[in-house]
Request: fold
Amino acid sequence: MKFKRIYIEITNQCNLTCDFCAISNRPKRTMSVDEFKLICEQIRFFTDFIYLHVQGEPLLHPQLDEILQIACKYDLKVQLVTNGTLIEKRFDLLLESPAIRQISVSLQSMQTIGYLEDTKRREMLLNHLVELSNAGKIIQIRLWNYDEQLFTDGINKCLLYLGIQFEDLLIDKKRYLTDHKNIFFSLDKQFQWPSDPGDISTVGRCQGANSMLAILSDGTLVPCCLDHQGAIELGNVFNTPFASLLEGNRLVSIQRGFKQNKIVESFCQSCQYRHRFD
Reply:
């Protein structure tokens, strides 16, 4: 079985505390280089793309250079999701690493700390992103908490730099090409993290478990990147071979259920993100 992507949370620590990010009660942990290597050795036959994301800021990892070297060794293309505040510090590594295919930058993260209102910082960030795109990296600039009141001067200037007018934005379009090579702008409404209350349903589909999986920083395998607490624990890749975990009854049951338009896990039954696949 081949997955479109597998998320690897190389750290669940972050340098920001954004109100749109779910609060986790898991212990803070950074994956070791040896642990990451073990994961890559096992998953390389099951995917071509890894996302260094679930929670946490991947650019905080103290051995990110070794992490990227390992990904390259196993021919795994890296999609890196970042709050953007550390791009300047890690710029040379991001520019030079052949493993990195795409860098997704969260405007809403920087917006919460006024980063974009600082002209010097904003211009430096955008110039770095253009240079990365010119080097062949795909740059996705995200604003996933769409609200007209949230369009600050800093965000508007970013849009103008990209060749986008605020008045032209349509939430249904979601993706916008820009005036800059390999850079596109992603607009969406803020989603709700899965929780117990809410719209409970046993009917529906999702890409979780079928086209994606996620591995938390402690090695726990879960069906998707929204399961940040490890509610649906499918085993641990540090203790059990990844290929064996794919044959586990719980994972097979989830996969079979989604293919039959049935939601078998209570965690998934309360997840609102599933409506994006209706």
